[in-house]
Amino acid sequence: MTPLMQPVRYSIVPKNPAAHVFEVTCTVAEPDPAGQRFMLPVWIPGSYMIREFARNIQYRHAESVQRGGAEGRDRKNR
């Protein structure tokens, strides 16, 4: 029997649609106490061209509500 998985929720808000800039929030209901890892694909189905979507991330931030403060570091990738 597979244990019941806790939800992962995403919120996507267009910040500058003309520039294709969106704010994406990911909420993990039960994060792994040892740390959480997220990955982006480098290609899309039907295309064999490498796209490297992660290079387009401008800013990221992580925090833990359960521990009462920011757990990750703010980082600008550009």
Please describe what this structure looks like.
There is one protein chain. By secondary structure, the chain is mainly beta. The chain has one domain (8-76). Helix content is 0%, strand content 27%. It has strands at 8-16, 21-28, 59-60, 75-76. Strands 1-2 form a two-stranded antiparallel sheet. A two-stranded antiparallel ribbon has the order 3-4. β1 and β2 (21-28) form a beta hairpin. Mean pLDDT is 80; it is low at 69-78.
Number of helices: 0
Largest sheet: 2 strands, antiparallel
Low-confidence segments, given as residue ranges, are 69-78
Give the assembly state of these chains: single chain
Instruction: Write down the secondary-structure element order.
Output: EEEE
Straight-line N-to-C gap: 45 Å
Give the tally of structural domains.
1
Give the overall shape, derived from the CA principal axes: extended
| Order of adjacent strands in the largest pleated sheet | 1-2
β content, as a range?
25-35%
Helical content (DSSP H or I, runs of 4+):
under 10%
* SSE-based structural type: mainly beta
Rg to the nearest angstrom? 15 Å
Q: Would you tell me the overall average pLDDT?
A: 80
Q: How many strands appear in the DSSP assignment? A: 4
Features:
0% helix; two-stranded antiparallel sheet; extended; mainly beta; disordered C terminus
SSE blueprint:
Layout: E1 8-16, E2 21-28, E3 59-60, E4 75-76
Give a short summary of the structure:
With 78 residues, the protein is an all-beta fold. It contains no helices and four strands.
